[in-house]
Every structure is written in structure tokens, then in C-alpha cells.
Design a protein that fits this description.
By secondary structure, the chain is mainly α. It has 20 helices and three strands. Among the domains are: 163 residues, Orthogonal Bundle (Citrate Synthase, domain 1); 108 residues, Cytochrome P450-Terp, domain 2 (Cytochrome p450-Terp, domain 2), CATH 1.10.230. The protein starts with a helix and ends with a helix. The structure holds N-hydroxyamidocarboxymethyldethia coenzyme *A (HAX).
Length: 433
């Protein structure tokens, strides 16, 4: 069944479920907000309901209820590798159902048909200074595509509220279809003298990115298929998902909302951590010149932390275990690059650092997150430009982010408008009890 039909078939039930919760339990309190939380980044305060994915502190990511190993096992695979087709992943995120091979291929075909990127998008990037960060170019390219928004055009002439989601889905399909060409040619613009490469119609979405940047190694294509699954979503309240959800609640279209999500992802405490992590690992490697002993590395890590700096790739706002996305990439590395010296360093840090971070007592999660390894894998296959890594993350994450946004419109979610206080008001609230 096509995605739009599958979503439409679920809408009556899902809307009734939500309406019933609000009608029957609208006044049920699910959280109290403390002063500490208001000043502490609203940590742990439930602000949104989404069924696309959930991050359990102990288990990590579940996409539509499926844990990472289950997603990798159940989704239809590419004929040219061992990892899933992004078309099937998008189908799962959007509909909540594991697709058949035919349904996954249908999305891949739909993407090929919609993949042409209008000329003005790349023209808008060319005059940018050479030192512009690729995440800025990526967000800019998405914004330039806003001229093509079907929702924005139809809204101008008036559409029924009930039908918003269909136009958001149309925009999501159009945007995601163009992403491999957009990001590959941002890569080519920045690091390959601006050559322009068109997608190969024989390849799937994830592999096409690899092809267009000149990486034809089947193992790298498989890495990209894995990378896309692992980075596609991480529930609805992280900075990028929440930013795009918030922006779309004003009925800004998919392009406007995804571009704002990418601006959040570009921050060093969020998506930029993968570029920081690779830089940090290379610094450690060049500090030692040869493979350090366990004791040498331990001492280095202790001194590094004592200098007040943070180690990228470790810690997480929600997770309290090793990120299963780290584990999945580590499994890939053990298979395809066990002798890579940088991967061996990643593994040594993994053996030593959690113990040190636990001892220092202030880090709530001493375990590695997804970013502790993903740059190492890219680096191994010759994608050495660390500042590009967050673009790869964003490219994958838009599959999830745009799904949240489509479903928010399908459920008729309203404009998001929480409340801010002044310090005086807060103090008088405290005094009054
Ligand atoms: N190295 C050193 N110190 C760390 C640390 C790390 N990797 N992780 C946390 N801490 C410190 C914090 O700076 C904080 O110190 P202060 O109390 O002095 O401010 C303390 O430990 C408590 O922090 P926390 O509650 O454990 O962590 P937060 O929820 O505040 O932040 C972060 C979570 C992921 C932002 C944090 O662990 C961090 O900065 N890690 C390194 C950067 C990183 O890997 N980011 C990517 C996260 C995954 C992601 O979203 N990718 O997009």
C-alpha cells in the first residue's frame, strides 16, 4: 500500500485515540515542573506526544517500537548489500508498519521521480565564501527549495484543515527525494572543485550519495545505508526535532521547519559533536604518535578532563547506557575495518573512559553516544572532511523530523506556545507558598 493510503487508513483511529485521551483525561497531571528544570533546559519535562520514535534511558532508540537491531534485521535490504533501503525506513517511520520489499522499492522509485533539484538551489550556494560551514549551505539549500512548497502554495488559495497533512507529506517526499543530490553536490562544491554529479538511477537513496561523491566501494555504500537508519530519528524533543516541530506548528511548511531543525543540529552540543569527536580522536592519535598503552591513555584522559574540557561522543541527555547506535557501528567496524588504527583507538577509549567519567561523579551518562564512532568510519572510507559529518547526520535525520511534522498536521496539533516568566514573577510565586 502507498504511504498516503496507509496513513489515511490509520487516521480515524489515531485521532479518536488522541481526542479520547484529551476528553477523558485532559486534566490528568503527567509532570510537575521545578525551578531547577525551568533553569536547566526543561530537562525531563514531557512537552510533546509522538509515536515515531522513543528513546528509553536504558534501551536506547526504538523506531516505531522496534529496537535498533530489530530495525536492521526486519527492514528490506538493498540487493547490493546487507543493510536496509532508506525507502523502507521512511515507510516504517511514516506508517508504523514494516514494509514489504515492494513497498520499500516503491518509495525508492517515488524518490527517483522527484529527485531533480531546481537550478536556483545550487546557484544560491555558489556565491557563498569558501569557508562557509557545509551545514550552513545545507540549511540554505533546503530554504531555497521552499519556493517549491506545495503546502505553501495551496494554503494561499485555501485548503481544508483536514487535508494539511497530505500536502506536508507531498513536500516531505519532494524534499527527501532531493537530499542525496543536494548534500553530495555540497560536498563536491566544497571539496571536489565544484564538479556536479547527477544521481545514478540504478542505485538506492543512501548509496546514491556515496556514488555522487565518487565513492563506489560497496562497503561504503552499505555504511551509508547503516548510517541513515541509525541517524534517522531520536524521538521528538531533542533540539532539531523540537525546533522543526515548533516552527511547523505555525504552519510553516516542511522546508522552513526542516531548515530550522538543521540549524539546531549544527550546534556543538547536538549534531556537530561528530565532527568534534573525530578532531579529538585525531588529536589524541597525533599526541601519542604510536598506539598508547592503556596506562598512558588513562593518564591523558584524566588530565584532559581535569583541564575542564569535555570529551565529545560521551554522555547523553537521556541515555544511561552505551548507545545502541554506537554498538551497531562498532559491529560494522569489527567486520570491515578491524585493523584501522583510529578504530582501535575508539575501542581503547571505550574500554577506559566510562570508568573515569563514572568516578568523577558529575557526568550522568559515562557511556559513548552515536558520535563517538561515526566519524571514524567515514574517515576510514576516505570521507575525511570532518566538518561535513553533521550534514550526513542531517540528511538522515530529515526522514524522522519530517515524519513528526506530517503526523503533527495529521493529528491537527495546534500552535505551540509555552510560557516564559520573569525572575520577579518566579520569586513571588515561590514567596506565595
Ligand atoms: N565530557 C566532559 N564532561 C561532560 C561530558 C563529557 N563528554 N558529558 C557531560 N559532562 C559534564 C557536563 O558538562 C556537566 O558539567 P557541569 O555540571 O560542570 O556543567 C556535567 O557533566 C553533567 O552533565 P550531564 O547532565 O551528564 O549532561 P547533559 O544532559 O547536560 O548534556 C551532553 C548532555 C550530550 C550535551 C553532554 O554529555 C556533552 O556535552 N557531551 C559531549 C558532546 C556530545 O557528545 N554531544 C552529542 C550528544 C548526542 C547527540 O545529541 N548528537 O546529536
Amino acid at each position: 500500500m502507498k504511504i498516503e493510503h496507509r496513513i489515511a487508513s490509520k487516521l480515524t483511529e489515531e485521532r479518536a485515540r488522541m481526542q479520547n485521551l484529551v476528553k477523558e483525561h485532559g486534566k490528568f497531571s503527567i509532570a510537575e515542573v521545578t525551578v531547577e528544570q525551568v533553569y536547566g533546559g526543561i530537562r525531563g519535562v514531557p512537552i510533546h506526544v509522538t509515536d515515531v520514535s522513543h528513546v528509553d534511558p536504558q534501551e536506547g532508540l526504538r523506531l516505531r517500537g522496534y529496537a535498533v537491531p530489530e530495525v536492521l534485521e526486519k527492514l528490506p535490504k538493498s540487493e547490493h548489500g546487507e543493510y536496509p533501503l532508506a525507502g523502507g525506513l521512511y515507510y516504517l517511520l511514516m506508517t508504523g508498519e514494516i514494509p514489504t520489499k515492494q513497498e520499500a522499492n516503491q518509495v525508492e522509485i517515488e524518490w527517483k521521480v522527484r529527485s531533480n533539484v531546481p537550478e536556483h538551489v545550487f546557484k544560491s550556494l555558489q556565491p557563498m565564501p569558501a569557508y562557509t560551514h557545509p551545514m550552513t549551505l545545507f540549511s540554505q539549500a533546503i530554504l531555497a527549495l521552499q519556493s517549491e512548497s506545495v503546502f505553501a502554495k495551496r494554503f494561499y488559495y485555501g485548503i481544508d484543515k483536514e487535508d494539511y497533512w497530505g500536502y506536508y507529506l507531498e513536500d516531505s517526499l519532494n524534499l527527501t527525494a532531493k537530499l542525496p543530490t543536494i548534500i553530495a553536490n555540497i560536498y563536491n562544491l566544497k571539496y571536489r572543485n565544484g564538479i556536479f554529479v547527477q544521481p545514478n538511477p540504478k542505485l538506492d537513496w543512501s548509496a546514491n550519495f556515496a556514488y555522487m561523491i565518487g565513492k563506489h566501494d560497496p562497503a561504503y555504500m552499505d555504511l551509508m545505508r547503516l548510517f541513515v537508519v541509525l541517524h534517522s530519528d531520536h524521538e521528538g524533543a531533542n533540539v532539531s526535532a523540537h525546533a522543526s516541530h515548533l516552527v511547523a506548528s505555525a504552519l510553516s511548511d516542511i522546508y522552513l521547519s526542516c531548515s530550522s531543525g538543521m540549524n539546531g543540529l549544527a550546534g556543538p552540543l547536538h549534531g556537530l559533536a561528530n565532527q568534534e569527536c573525530l578532531r579529538w580522536l585525531l588529536d589524541v592519535q597525533s599526541h601519542f604518535k604510536v598506539v598508547p598503552t592503556e596506562e598512558q591513555l588513562r593518564q591523558y584522559l584524566v588530565e584532559f578532563l581535569a583541564s575542564g574540557r569535555m570529551i565529545p561522543g560521551y554522555g547523553h541527555a537521556v541515555l544511561r547506557v552505551t548507545d545502541p547506535r554506537f554498538t551497531a557501528q562498532r559491529d560494522f567496524a569489527c567486520k570491515f575495518l578491524p585493523d584501522d588504527p583510529l578504530f582501535q583507538l575508539v575501542d581503547m577509549v571505550y574500554q577506559i573512559l566510562p570508568g573515569i567519567l563514572s568516578q568523577n561523579g558529575k557526568v550522568k551518562n559515562p557511556w559513548p553516544n552515536v558520535d563517538a564512532i561515526n566519524g571514524t568510519l567515514q574517515y576510514h572510507f576516505g570521507v575525511t572532511e570532518a566538518d561535513f559529518y553533521t550534514v550526513l547526520f542531517g540528511f538522515s535525520r530529515i526522514l524522522g523530523i519530517s515524519t513528526h511534522v506530517v503526523w503533527s498536521r495529521a493529528m491537527g496539533k495546534p500552535l505551540e506556545r509555552p510560557k516564559s516568566l520573569t525572575t520577579d514573577i518566579l520569586e513571588s510565586m515561590i514567596k506565595s507558598v
